[in-house]
Design goal:
This is ABC-2 family transporter. By secondary structure, this protein is mainly α. The chain contains 9 helices and 2 strands; from the N terminus they run H-H-E-E-H-H-H-H-H-H-H. A two-stranded antiparallel ribbon has the order 1-2. The longest helix is centred in the middle third of the chain and has 38 residues.
Length: 240
């Protein structure tokens, strides 16, 4: 008989520490993805040429856009996989139930999103340094070397993608029919991408500036992480 008693926060913290290590291979996948993005971003995301007959000037633009978009796809897939059967079996290795498991998963994804944001920003700096070293060209940054507001925006975008993937995976965990209907609805919605409904959503998130976007993104991500805790609460972890 054991007299050891752990509080709810201690159980969640134990799971977070364990899952961060157990799912760490996802970060290796992210690093490989960044290497692939180096190839696609080597020539820049845009180019302009100016000349007067005697002198020709080519300008290449390098930005975080490609790195952030690819990392958002990575975070979506990673978050989706965490709720699949093979990953859920890892909960059997530690003391857990659906509530603590989902809360721990959300915290792990927040942590991974933060690490991914750091990797994304470092990737751009490494790419720029590599191009300067190999090509011997001059770089003129249009912003400071590190912009904290841009870092937060990147983090929120990656976190939104992670929370969306986790929410979708939770729907399939609850009911494959419900998850399938959601995918069909979302697919039909994407085919009508130029309709006013989607444009209204885009304006809601982005037109009011960075600070309001950060607030709205954090609220949306919190909602996507909270709902699985609520509707999967009664579905206990089972063996087999």
């Amino acid at each position: 008989m054991s007299l050891t008693h752990k509080t709810f926060p201690q159980v969640v913290l134990t799971q977070v520490k364990w899952k961060v290590m157990a799912y760490s291979q996802a970060l290796i996948t992210l690093l490989i993805l960044q290497i692939v993005m180096y190839y696609f971003n080597y020539s820049g995301s845009g180019m302009s040429t100016r000349g007067n007959g005697l002198l020709s000037l080519q300008t290449h633009f390098y930005s975080l856009d490609g790195f952030v978009i690819s990392t958002c796809l990575w975070s979506f897939v990673t978050a989706y996989l965490i709720q699949t059967k093979d990953y859920r079996k890892t909960n059997l290795s530690i003391v857990s139930n659906r509530v603590t498991g989902n809360i721990a998963n959300a915290l792990v994804l927040v942590f991974y999103s933060f690490i991914a944001t750091i990797i994304v920003h470092m990737s751009l700096y490494i790419l720029v340094a590599f191009i300067q070293l190999v090509k011997g060209i001059t770089m003129f940054p249009d912003v400071s070397l590190f912009n904290f507001l841009h870092f937060l925006v990147s983090f929120c975008l990656i976190l939104l993608a992670a929370s969306s993937g986790y929410f979708l995976s939770s729907l399939f965990n609850l009911s494959k029919i419900l998850g399938g209907l959601f995918v069909i609805f979302f697919g039909l919605f994407l085919f009508r991408v130029f309709d006013e409904q989607l444009l209204t959503i885009m304006r809601f998130y982005f037109e009011a500036g960075y600070l309001l976007f950060i607030v709205k993104a954090l609220i949306t991500a919190s909602l996507f992480f909270t709902l699985p805790v609520v509707f999967l609460n009664r579905k206990e972890v089972v063996r087999g």
